[in-house]
Fold:
Amino acid sequence: MTKLDPQWQRAGYTLRLGRPAEAETYYANFTRRDPEGDRFTGSGSFTKQQVVEFYLHTITDPNRYDLLLVAPDGRITGESVLNDIDWTLGSANYRIYLFDPALRNHGWGTWLVTTARDFAFDQLHLHRLGLDVFSFNPRAHHVYQRAGFIDEGRLRDAVWDSATGQYGDDILMGMLASDPRPRQGVGMAN
Structure:
């Protein structure tokens, strides 16, 4: 199966699949610590070899689409990922990470989520998307709800929030292709 090679534009940025030559550029995001991003995504420390090997694997894996948000200057500033695709069930997991903190709170998360959502349902013809979000990340929970995802369950005290020294819940969310989809880009300049 040949992967589709989608591409979208917004405000000079491009959302597209990664390319093998960009492995070092992708790794640069792991050389600077982003405590907020790490906290909300559960990310940790990785070696250069681990990141580069993982990145190169994502490019060829037929069961995932790692869409990169590339700035006009070529920096990789975020990712919007459909992974664990089960083509038989028509389902996938979804995750997002804005590497550049300056892009947060400016509609980029909503744009990435709705763009990936529409790609998954309209181009890949998936039936279901699922994700999980930590209860101490209300901004992301709101973005997912705004894109049409609904809460499907909650794993109580399933994650540790080192910033507060308390447990948090892991909220399970999902969306079906037949669910209402708020229009992409609502309230944003595209």
